[in-house]
Write a structure and sequence with these properties.
Helix content is 37%, strand content 23%. It is built from 17 helices and 22 strands. It has a seven-stranded mixed beta sheet. Helix 1 links the parallel strand 1 and strand 2. Helix 1 packs across helix 17, helix 2 packs across helix 17 and helix 8 crosses helix 9. The radius of gyration is 23 Å and the shape is globular.
Length: 476
C-alpha cells in the first residue's frame, strides 16, 4: 500500500485528490491524506449564501476556453449545474474622463478586429487610434526574450492602449503592475500572434476567420466564455470532497515541516503528529511552499521566494431593484489607474449571471487592491465600504443605501508572474528533479485561473501515480 500526502486544500490540491480517488476506485493500492492549514477547503474559492443572494469571496467564474474546469465539473457529476453569462447584457464599460464608455464591438481584449466600431468609439482619441493602427506596419520583435506587458503594448499599440485597455483589463486580471508582469507567462497568445503574423491586428483577423470557418464545421458550443455554477463555485469544492470518500481530508492541519528523501517522506503537523508517505504533493501558495522546501531543497526554495504575492479585496453590495439609480445594462466596468479611483473594477453580478440575486434585488461586486493599489486592500472594512460607495456614487450615480455590504480580504493571495517567470519556474522544476516523490501544484507556476489550477493538480497526481507505479515495479 503506497501512501500519498497532499498539502494544501485549494482547488489544485482538491483536483489532485479527486484524480487519486479515481485511481483508488480502480483498484490501485493507494492511501491518500490531504492536510489544509485553515478551517475550510477551497482556497480563494468560497461561496456564501444569504437570503437568496449567492456571494463569492474570491473568483466568481472561470473561462471555458481552457477545458480543465468544465471537465472537472463533468467528472464530479455537476455539469448540469453550469451556467453561462446573460446573453442579453453583453456590454462592458471603461470609466474614462469621468464617464462610462462602452467598449467597442470587435475589440478582442485590446486588439480591434472591426473598423467602424473602432473608428467611431469615443474611448480612444484620434491620435490613440492612429497609433494603434501602426501595429499594421511595425516589424515583429527581433528575439524571443520575455518582456513586460507594458513594454509589449507600448511597442505594438502605444501608450493610450496601455493606459485605457491593457492596464485595467489585462493587468487587472492578474492584479498586477503592467510594468513588471511577464507577457510570455500571462498572455502568450499575443507573443505567438506577433511571432506568426507580425501584426496583432492581422493575426487576430486571421484567427477570427479561422474560428468562423471551424464554427461551420462543428456544433456551436453551449458554453459562454465565462462560466460559473448555479449555487456558486463553492459547490465544486464541496462536491470534490464528497466524491473522494477514500481520501482523508483534514482541515485546521497546518504543516510545520517536511523531511526525507526518495520514497521516504515525513510530514510534521503543528502541535504534533508525524505522517509517513512515499510521495508528497505541495499544493500551497508559493511562499508557504518555499518555507516547507527550505530545509529539504534550499536551492529550489530560494527560486520560489522570488515569486511575489499581493493583496486584493472584494466588496459586494446588494440593493433593492425598485427605484435603483442605474440600468445595469452590461457586465460592469473597469477603471484605469489614471482615473484615481479606489476600485479597480465593478461587476454587475445580477446582470452578468442568473441566480445571483433574489427577485426584486440587484447585486454589484467591486475589486480593490492589487500591485498598483495594494494599500487600499489592506484597509479596514468600514473604510473600504466608504470608499466603494463614494466611487459608485460618482461613477454610476448610486446614492441608495445597500441592503447589505460584504467585504472580503484576500491578503497576499494573488501571485505575480513577473518578467522571466517561466525561466524561474523551469529552474525550480529542474532543482526538484533531485527529489523524487516531491511534486508541486497550484497557481504559482504555470497559470493562475481555476482551469489552470485544476490542470496543475491533475498533472501532479498523474506524476505521483506514475512515480509510485515505477517504484512498485522496481521493488518486485
Amino acid at each position: 500500500m503506497k501512501k500519498i500526502i497532499i498539502i494544501g486544500g485549494g482547488i489544485a490540491g482538491l483536483a489532485a485528490a479527486t484524480r487519486i480517488q479515481q485511481e483508488i476506485s480502480a483498484g490501485t493500492q493507494l492511501e491518500c491524506a490531504l492536510f489544509e492549514g485553515s478551517e475550510r477547503f477551497g482556497g480563494k474559492i468560497s461561496t456564501e449564501k444569504m437570503d437568496g443572494f449567492v456571494i463569492e469571496r474570491g473568483p466568481d467564474s472561470f473561462i471555458s476556453q481552457k477545458p480543465a474546469a468544465i471537465q472537472f465539473c463533468k467528472q464530479l457529476g455537476i455539469e448540469d449545474h453550469l451556467v453561462g453569462t446573460n446573453p442579453e447584457t453583453p456590454n462592458t464599460y471603461v470609466y474614462t474622463g469621468g464617464k462610462l464608455v462602452t467598449m467597442p464591438d470587435g475589440l478582442s481584449l485590446m486588439i480591434p478586429t472591426k473598423f467602424l466600431p473602432f473608428a467611431f468609439t469615443p474611448l480612444f482619441s484620434l491620435m490613440g487610434k492612429i497609433r494603434m493602427a501602426f501595429d499594421l506596419l511595425i516589424p515583429k520583435k527581433a528575439d524571443d526574450s520575455d518582456e513586460s506587458l507594458a513594454s509589449f503594448v507600448r511597442r505594438r499599440m502605444g501608450e493610450e492602449a496601455l493606459r485605457k485597455m491593457a492596464e485595467p483589463m489585462l493587468a487587472g486580471i492578474y492584479a498586477s503592475d503592467p510594468e513588471t508582469m511577464s507577457i510570455g507567462s500571462t498572455f502568450p497568445m499575443f507573443v505567438e500572434t506577433e511571432r506568426k503574423y507580425r501584426s496583432l491586428i492581422l493575426g487576430m483577423l486571421a484567427r477570427k476567420k479561422a474560428m468562423l470557418l471551424n464554427a461551420n464545421k462543428r456544433p456551436a458550443s453551449k458554453f459562454s466564455l465565462f462560466m460559473t455554477l448555479k449555487d456558486g463555485l463553492g459547490e465544486m469544492v464541496d462536491t470534490a470532497i464528497k466524491k473522494s470518500p477514500d481520501v482523508q481530508f483534514q482541515s485546521g492541519a497546518r504543516v510545520e515541516s517536511i523531511s526525507g528523501k526518495e520514497g521516504d517522506w515525513s510530514v510534521y503537523l503543528e502541535g504534533g503528529g508525524e505522517y509517513k508517505a512515499q510521495a508528497v504533493i505541495l499544493a500551497t501558495p508559493g511562499h508557504i511552499t518555499a518555507r516547507l522546501l527550505q530545509p529539504v531543497a534550499p536551492a529550489a526554495a530560494e527560486v520560489l521566494k522570488q515569486v511575489k504575492y499581493v493583496s486584493t479585496a472584494t466588496v459586494t453590495l446588494g440593493y433593492k431593484k425598485e427605484g435603483f439609480s442605474h440600468a445595469l445594462d452590461g457586465f460592469g466596468f473597469v477603471v484605469p489607474k489614471c482615473e484615481n479611483r479606489s476600485i479597480l473594477a465593478c461587476t454587475w453580478t445580477s446582470s452578468k449571471f442568473p441566480h445571483r440575486a433574489p427577485e426584486g434585488y440587484v447585486m454589484l461586486r467591486c475589486y480593490l487592491g492589487g500591485a498598483l493599489r495594494e494599500d487600499i486592500a489592506e484597509k479596514d472594512e468600514h473604510t473600504m465600504t466608504r470608499l466603494v460607495r463614494q466611487d459608485l456614487k460618482e461613477i454610476m450615480g448610486i446614492e441608495e443605501k445597500p441592503v447589505f455590504c460584504k467585504v472580503f480580504h484576500n491578503r497576499k493571495s494573488n501571485v505575480q508572474y513577473q518578467v522571466n517567470h517561466s525561466v524561474r519556474i523551469d529552474t525550480l522544476m529542474k532543482e526538484l528533479d533531485a527529489f523524487p516523490g516531491l511534486f508541486l501544484a497550484g497557481s504559482a507556476y504555470r497559470g493562475i485561473g481555476i482551469p489552470d489550477c485544476i490542470q496543475s493538480g491533475n498533472e501532479s497526481a498523474e506524476s505521483v501515480i506514475q512515480f509510485l507505479a515505477d517504484k512498485s515495479k522496481a521493488e518486485i
